[in-house]
C-alpha cells in the first residue's frame, strides 16, 4: 500500500475511535509489530542502499506523525472520560478562587497592643463580660449611690442570685479585672486585659454602645507614677512610632489617686489642630493612675508595702488614630469594602 494512503486511512480510523479500548485496537493495528508500517520497514531491507534510505525516511516520518496523532487522541479521550465520570464533576473546569479571610481591624489592634505590653513583661488575661456590681463599681471605690456611677451609663442585667440578689450588669469597663486578678494573686502583678465593654449611650462618630478596652495593672514594691509614664510612653512609641509625643494631665477616676489621662499628638495634623483632634492637636487614648489604697486594701494587699499603677486604653480610639478613620461606627457595620482595607 502507498504510504500516504496508509496514513490517510489510519488518521481517519483514529477519528472514529470512541474510547481508550478502541484507541488501543487502533494502535495495535497501525503501529503494532505486525502492522503495515512495521511490515513495510522490514520489507525495504532488500532494496538497494539509496532506495532503502529514501523509503525508510518517509516511512519513519509517517510513523512518527501517527504516533503524535495517537498521543493527542489519547489525551482528549482520557479527558472526556474523566470529565463525564460518574460523579458528573468536570475536572477540566478551572478552579474557583479561595476567598482569603483576614482579621478585623479591632482584633489586629488588640493583638498589637497586647504584644507591645507583653514585650515589657505583662501577661494577658481575660475576664467576664457579665459582671457583678461589686467588681465593676464597689470594689473599685464606687459605692452604691456614689456620683461617679454617672460616669458609666450602665446596662443592668435582670438577674437575682439565691444569695439575696447582688446586682449584675454588662461591664462598663475592663477595670473589674483589676480586682479579680488581685484577689487571686500576690504581688508582683503585671497584667493586661483585652475585652469588650458596654455603655448605655447613644452612638455617634466617636461613641459606640459596645466597644473595647485593654486594661493594665502593675503592683509591686516601689512602683511610682514614673513607672506608669515610662511604660505608657514606651507603648505609645511601639504603636505609633518613635517620634510620637505624649501628654499627661490630671483627671478623676475613683479607683486611682492621682488619676491622669494620656494623649498623643494628633497624627492627622501633626499637632497643629484639625477636625479629628477638634482643634487641640492632642488625642486622648487612655485613662490611668496610681491604684487607690482603698482598692488595694479591699483585696488584702499591704498598702504600706505595695503600690501600683493601672490604665484603661480605648482600642477603637487607637485603631482610628493608626488608620485615620473618623467614624467609630464603621468598625461594626460589617461592610467588606471597609474591612478589606486592613492588612
Ligand atoms: N476604667 C476607666 C474607664 O473606662 C479607665 C481607667 C482604667 C482609668 C484604669 C484609670 C485606671 O474610663
Could you walk me through the main structural features you see in this protein, from its secondary elements to its overall organization?
The chain contains eleven helices and ten strands. The model has no long low-confidence stretch (mean pLDDT 90). It folds into two domains: 3-83; 105-339, 2-Layer Sandwich (BirA Bifunctional Protein, domain 2). Helices cover 38% and strands 20% of the residues. The longest helix has 35 residues, at 49-83. The chain has 343 residues and is of the alpha+beta class. The strands form two sheets. A seven-stranded mixed sheet has the order 1-5-6-10-9-8-7, with helices on both faces. A hairpin with a 4-residue loop joins β7 and β8. The structure holds phenylalanine (PHE). Phenylalanine is lined by residues 173, 175, 253, 256, 259, 287-289, 310-312.
The amount of helix comes to 25-40%
CATH H level of the largest domain: which superfamily?
Bira Bifunctional Protein, Domain 2
Bound molecules: phenylalanine
CA-based gyration radius: 39 Å
Q: DSSP strand (E) fraction?
A: 15-25%
Low-confidence stretches: none
Count, helices = 11
Task: Say what the CATH topology of the largest domain is.
Answer: BirA Bifunctional Protein, domain 2
Strand neighbour order, sheet with most strands: 1-5-6-10-9-8-7
- Structurally, how many domains make up the residues? 2
SSE ordering = HHHHHEEHEEHEEHEEEHEHH
Q: Which quaternary structure do these chains form?
A: single chain
- The CATH architecture of the largest domain would be 2-Layer Sandwich
Return the structural class.
alpha+beta
Task: Tell me the overall shape.
Answer: elongated
Task: Give a quick account of the main beta sheet: strands, pairing sense, barrel closure.
Answer: 7 strands, mixed
**C-alpha termini separation:** 72 Å
CATH class of the largest domain: Alpha Beta
Mean pLDDT value? 90
Q: Please tally the β strands and state the result.
A: 10
Amino acid at each position: 500500500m502507498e504510504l500516504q494512503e496508509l496514513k490517510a486511512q489510519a488518521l481517519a480510523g483514529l477519528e472514529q475511535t470512541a474510547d481508550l479500548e478502541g484507541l488501543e485496537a487502533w494502535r495495535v493495528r497501525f503501529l503494532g509489530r505486525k502492522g503495515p508500517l512495521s511490515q513495510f520497514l522490514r520489507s525495504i531491507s532488500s532494496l538497494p542502499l539509496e532506495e532503502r534510505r529514501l523509503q525508510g525516511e518517509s516511512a519513519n516520518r509517517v510513523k512518527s506523525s501517527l504516533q503524535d496523532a495517537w498521543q493527542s487522541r489519547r489525551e482528549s479521550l482520557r479527558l472526556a472520560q474523566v470529565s463525564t465520570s460518574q460523579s458528573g464533576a468536570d475536572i477540566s473546569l478551572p478552579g474557583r478562587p479561595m476567598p482569603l479571610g483576614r482579621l478585623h481591624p479591632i482584633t489586629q489592634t488588640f493583638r498589637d497592643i497586647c504584644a507591645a505590653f507583653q514585650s515589657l513583661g505583662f501577661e494577658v488575661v481575660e475576664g467576664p463580660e457579665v459582671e457583678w456590681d461589686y467588681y465593676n463599681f464597689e470594689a473599685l471605690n464606687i459605692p452604691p449611690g456614689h456620683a461617679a456611677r454617672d460616669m458609666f451609663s450602665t446596662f443592668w442585667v435582670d438577674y437575682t442570685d439565691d444569695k439575696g440578689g447582688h446586682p449584675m450588669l454588662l461591664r462598663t469597663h475592663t477595670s473589674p479585672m483589676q480586682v479579680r486578678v488581685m484577689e487571686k494573686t500576690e504581688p508582683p502583678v503585671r497584667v493586661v486585659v483585652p475585652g469588650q465593654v458596654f455603655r448605655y449611650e447613644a452612638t455617634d462618630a466617636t461613641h459606640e454602645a459596645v466597644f473595647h478596652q485593654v486594661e493594665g495593672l502593675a503592683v509591686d514594691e516601689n512602683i511610682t507614677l514614673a513607672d506608669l509614664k515610662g511604660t505608657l510612653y514606651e507603648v505609645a512609641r511601639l504603636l505609633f512610632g518613635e517620634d510620637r509625643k505624649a501628654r499627661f494631665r490630671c483627671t478623676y477616676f475613683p479607683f486611682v489617686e492621682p488619676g491622669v489621662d494620656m494623649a498623643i499628638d494628633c497624627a492627622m495634623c501633626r499637632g497643629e489642630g484639625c477636625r479629628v483632634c477638634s482643634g487641640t492637636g492632642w488625642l486622648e487614648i487612655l485613662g490611668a493612675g496610681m491604684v487607690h489604697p482603698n482598692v488595694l486594701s479591699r483585696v488584702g494587699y499591704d498598702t504600706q508595702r505595695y503600690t501600683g499603677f493601672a490604665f484603661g486604653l480605648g482600642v477603637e480610639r487607637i485603631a482610628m488614630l493608626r488608620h485615620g478613620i473618623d467614624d467609630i461606627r464603621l468598625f461594626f457595620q460589617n461592610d467588606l469594602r471597609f474591612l478589606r482595607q486592613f492588612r
